[in-house]
Amino acid sequence: MPFLLCSCSSSKITTTKFADNSVVAHRGAFKKNALPENSIAALKEAIRLGCTGSEFDIRLTANDSLIINHDAHYNKLEIEKTEWIKEAKENNIALNAWTINKKEDMEWLLKEGFNFITTNEPELLFSVLNLEK
Fold first, then answer.
1. What count of Cα atoms within 13 Å lies in the side-chain half-sphere of residue 91?
2. 77 falls within a domain
3. Measured distance CA(126)–CA(128) in Å, rounded
4. Per the domain annotation, does 97 fall within a domain?
5. What is the pLDDT of residues 85-107, one digit of tens each?
6. Which residues, listed in sequence order, are joined to residue 12 by a DSSP beta bridge?
7. What is the pTM of this model?
8. Cβ-proximal residues to 123 (8 Å cutoff; 6+ apart), any chain
9. Among 40, 62, 63, 108, fewest CB within 10 Å belongs to which?
10. Cis link prior to 99 (omega < 30° from 0)?
């Protein structure tokens, strides 16, 4: 399963006033110093560098604990609570997934009722949606 992100949508556009720059470190600043991705060390390095933010992966476990882990499993143990899609829909939260480039993943997300799919393969997604031009 690809990484999925739930996001709220609004038609109101506001200006970001707290950001000094547009740099967001993906999973923290880990690469240059060979730090573990999604680690406190990588997040601290992003802060040290002056990044406006860091993107990292948070999972809600079956026992309602939040953990930082990229995958929905750890050592073959499923850790992710899977009801979050249902709960997001019940709370009228728009669902967006990215970056989805495989047909079977697109089909699964559409079946689950995702509102938006971000992809590097828009032609494929239009085909899956039967909206080709």
1. 12
2. yes
3. 5
4. no
5. 888 889 888 888 877 889 999 99
6. none
7. 0.47
8. 132
9. 63
10. yes
